[in-house]
């Protein structure tokens, strides 16, 4: 399959556009603009009102004004570096045009004395006189029609001016093909959206500010197109994964019943629902591709383990992968008691396993004597062979994008895939990142989890906080003290943590305070954690390495130093380390006054709510999608037009439309399907095109 001929003009070299040479093309490339198509998807971000005014007298200066003037006297520059001035008069008042470094007779040619001209530019008052420095436009009255009443303003880069990009865009628009519509006609009519080519033209020719907002019909339509192409790609990936022959793993309940009987509590409704959804998926002969999304403390571990038991009950094996060794070991700690209740064999495999020990584990795995394996992504190295792998659980932490999920499928593993994330993700982002998957959400807290009291404390009250800790330690309670990420350098963070450790040890006594940070040897880190878990140390000073997965029910105090420099989601994750036992828990957010507006809002939201999904939505509103999860490593696509914060609802519509279209037309052979293929080529979703079923 190759790109349709109708799109060739949009995918030609940029130099084929009138007025764009090789040098200009290089400048454009810095903006990610390499072909006419990229220009069409580079929309203006603001605009300038250039409507003709009779006079500047009534204008609220400084402001951009456009007026017809009669040109008066020229006053040349008095010395090098000083400006040349031209006096002009509109219908009611006189003002000056100011030019620096004007060469030769340039001004006389542009502005001949006694003639009329239209000038447009930013007027301001200087020394009591109105002036325009370097007008943006100088036109003869008969050329007035060339100036748009509302001029679009584009993003720029070095070597690209507004005039240059406007000319290039006009040349690209001249090549705009009329394409058959891929949008469901009912949706298009309901939303009142224009056709594709009309939407592109309208987006580049705004007539007022309202045309520039994401909610404007043309922008909504083009944003939807981008999201629809993305969701089609994900839906095709999902269809290809599910076509990959899955194996039905039927749960017998043999092991699950033992675990449920040993639990000291009843699972929540959300846990039961997720366990049921996963078991149903695994019982079908289609491959499962599901996301398990849960807030801090919502009980993901139990759900994941029950899924692993379905694999074991069906006579197979399960694997749980974590992004780091410390997390893999924490999963092992969490799962071990459950494995003992069930009576199944659980083992860990990481880079630490060497020689005979590793060889023994690999043999046991290949022979099926290890039923559940926990490890890092190293479990997919060539020499790791499973006897009968039925389920792969990936503990996400945002390091495992769509591409890696597709690779997992390409390995020929017929295993079902369950991806877990502990970070609540706003719905629009979750669809952008995991739209190829079915989703189970844990939105209830297990019984017995008490709310955590959150308080803001100024750094000036440090002694008071240490006094509070001393009292808590005397009562047998435990606490975390998280040191700030001073900068993206673990060495500096380490110094801060070590200093705090020394000061607290002096205040609370020898042997009471432990320390963990990212630079420690793994064995030392494990030993420090083990001391804290066993209650031998009472206060654990840490950098953010403890953000995820640590479970110490007796720890009931969390102190976060310089809380104002942490992100919302990170603070929420850290707070989730306490409130796991029966004691009342407290999270103290220590900040350095004065607080900036953003920091104050973040800390206030945290104090008001423990609902991770609400916190995630607020975080998205404050920081934007890219920042929220670090676009580079997130698997989150970069959209040129679609705005994930402001057009969130469109993502859900795009997903259901894409799935519906593919359900009725898996090969995209209908007339609308053919139009959707053109859209995929237009949006450079080449990988998706390779996934379209033939026939």
UniProtKB/TrEMBL annotation:
Keywords for the protein's UniProt record, in alphabetical order: ATP-binding, DNA damage, DNA repair, DNA-binding, Helicase, Hydrolase, Nucleotide-binding
InterPro entries, per database record: DEAD/DEAH_box_helicase_dom (IPR011545), Helicase_ATP-bd (IPR014001), Helicase_C-like (IPR001650), NA-bd_OB-fold (IPR012340), P-loop_NTPase (IPR027417), RecG/Mfd (IPR047112), RecG_dom3_C (IPR045562), RecG_wedge (IPR033454)
Domain Helicase C-terminal: 468-621
PROSITE patterns associated with the record: HELICASE_ATP_BIND_1 (PS51192), HELICASE_CTER (PS51194)
SUPFAM superfamilies given in the database record: Nucleic acid-binding proteins, P-loop containing nucleoside triphosphate hydrolases
Residues annotated as domain Helicase ATP-binding: 281-442
Gene Ontology MF: a single term: DNA helicase activity
Keyword DNA repair: yes
Entry keyword annotation includes ATP-binding: yes
The protein's name: Probable DNA 3'-5' helicase RecG
């Amino acid at each position: 399959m190759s790109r349709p001929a109708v799109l060739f003009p949009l995918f030609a070299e940029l130099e084929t556009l009138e007025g764009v040479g090789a040098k200009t093309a290089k400048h454009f490339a810095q903006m990610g603009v390499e072909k006419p198509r990229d220009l069409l998807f580079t929309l203006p971000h603001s605009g300038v009102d250039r409507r003709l005014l009779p006079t500047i007298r009534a204008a609220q200066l400084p402001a951009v004004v456009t007026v017809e003037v009669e040109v008066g006297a020229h006053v040349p520059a008095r010395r090098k570096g000083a400006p040349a001035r031209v006096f002009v008069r509109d219908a009611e008042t006189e003002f000056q045009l100011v030019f620096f470094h004007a060469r030769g007779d340039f001004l006389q040619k542009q502005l001949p004395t006694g003639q009329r001209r239209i000038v447009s530019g930013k007027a301001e008052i200087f020394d009591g006189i109105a002036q325009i420095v370097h007008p943006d436009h100088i036109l003869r009255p008969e050329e007035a029609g060339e100036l748009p009443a509302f001029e679009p303003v584009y993003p720029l880069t070095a070597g690209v001016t507004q005039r240059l990009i406007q000319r290039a865009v006009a040349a690209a628009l001249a090549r705009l093909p009329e394409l058959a519509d891929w949008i469901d006609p009912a949706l298009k009519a309901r939303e009142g959206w224009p056709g594709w080519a009309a939407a592109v033209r309208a987006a580049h020719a705004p007539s007022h500010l309202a045309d520039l907002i994401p909610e404007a019909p043309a922008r909504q339509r083009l944003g939807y197109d981008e999201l629809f192409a993305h969701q089609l790609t994900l839906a095709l990936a999902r269809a290809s994964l599910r076509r990959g022959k899955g194996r039905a793993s039927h749960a017998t309940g043999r092991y699950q019943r033992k675990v449920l009987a040993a639990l000291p509590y009843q699972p929540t409704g959300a846990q039961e629902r997720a366990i049921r959804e996963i078991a149903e998926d695994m019982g079908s002969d289609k491959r499962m591709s599901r996301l398990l999304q849960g807030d801090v403390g919502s009980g993901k571990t139990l759900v994941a383990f029950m899924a692993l038991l379905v694999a074991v009950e069906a006579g197979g094996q399960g694997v749980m992968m974590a992004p780091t060794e410390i997390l893999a070991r924490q999963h092992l700690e969490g799962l071990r008691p459950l494995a003992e209740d069930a009576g199944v064999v659980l083992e860990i495999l990481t880079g630490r396993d060497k020689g005979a020990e590793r060889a023994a584990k690999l043999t046991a795995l290949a022979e099926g004597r290890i039923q559940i394996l926990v490890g890092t992504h190293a479990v997919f190295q060539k020499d790791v062979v499973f006897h009968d792998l039925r389920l792969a659980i990936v503990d996400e932490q945002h390091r495992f994008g769509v591409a890696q999920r597709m690779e997992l499928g390409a390995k020929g593993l017929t295993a079902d895939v369950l991806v877990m994330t502990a970070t609540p993700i706003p719905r629009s982002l979750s669809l952008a990142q995991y739209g190829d998957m079915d989703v189970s959400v844990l939105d209830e807290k297990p019984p017995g989890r008490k709310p955590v009291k959150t308080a803001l404390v100024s750094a000036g009250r440090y002694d008071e906080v240490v006094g509070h800790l001393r009292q808590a330690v005397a009562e047998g309670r435990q606490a975390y003290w998280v040191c700030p990420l001073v900068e993206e350098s673990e060495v500096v963070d380490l110094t801060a943590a070590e200093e705090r450790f020394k000061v607290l040890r002096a205040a609370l006594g020898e042997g009471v305070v432990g320390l963990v940070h990212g630079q420690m040897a793994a064995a030392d880190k494990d030993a420090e954690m083990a001391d804290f878990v066993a209650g031998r140390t009472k206060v654990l000073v840490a950098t953010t390495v403890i953000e995820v997965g640590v479970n110490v029910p007796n720890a009931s105090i969390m102190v976060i130093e310089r809380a104002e420099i942490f992100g919302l989601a990170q603070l929420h994750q850290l707070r989730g380390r306490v409130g796991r036992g029966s004691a009342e828990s407290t999270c103290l957010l220590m900040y350095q006054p004065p607080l900036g507006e953003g920091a104050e809002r973040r800390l206030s939201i945290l104090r008001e709510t423990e609902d991770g999904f609400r916190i995630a939505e607020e975080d998205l509103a404050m920081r934007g999608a890219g920042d929220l999860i670090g676009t580079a490593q997130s698997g989150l696509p970069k959209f040129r037009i679609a705005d994930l914060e402001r057009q969130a609802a469109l993502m859900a519509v795009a997903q259901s439309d894409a799935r519906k279209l593919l359900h009725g037309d898996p090969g995209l052979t209908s007339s609308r399907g053919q139009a959707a293929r053109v859209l995929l080529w237009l949006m450079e979703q080449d990988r998706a095109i390779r996934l379209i079923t033939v026939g």
